[in-house]
Amino acid sequence: MTPSDQALSLFTTGLKNAHAMEKQALSILKPQASRIESYPDMKARIEQHISETEQQIQRLETIFDQVDESHSGFKDMILSVGGAMAALSHAAAGDEVLKDTFANYAFEHYEIAAYKSLIQIGDRLALGDASALLRQTLDEEERMAQWIDEHIGLVTDQYLVLQKADQQAKR
Ligand SMILES: [Fe+2]
């Protein structure tokens, strides 16, 4: 393999991993959005990110079709995004919204790192169109991460208020 073959192979592998990552994101965010009742801002932002994620998947497929000479398409493998994601499997515990928030924050940062790396390879391969599409996605991931960052305190306060109201109702 020549160095640029290696870079292209890393790029196509990275696209496949990103595709699996985004499918996993949908499988995490969709149940969250449908479960959330008491946090309308969080619900709305997650719903927005679900539609962004669907577009991100389309972008990855567009890029993959351009660079994949085998036309094998994506065969999504199960991707493990690390220990923080274990929190996603918890049952409907009372502090679910907090754990979801921590996990989403971690997931967004995993995605940010993955796209930064892919963009770097795309730039090395002079795949300007691909890098431009990936930058749109990176921008969405960064904005989602920033939104979560700005809402960790708020959602914690909301949780405390709701918990207190719940306890008073039980008295
Ligand atoms: Fe995301």
Automatic annotation (TrEMBL):
InterPro entries: DUF892_YciF-like, Ferritin-like, Ferritin-like_SF, YciF. Keywords: Coiled coil. Pfam families: DUF892. SUPFAM superfamilies: Ferritin-like. Residues 43-70 form a coiled coil. It comes from the Bacteria. The keyword Coiled coil applies. This is Ferritin-like metal-binding protein YciE. It comes from Pelagibacterium luteolum.
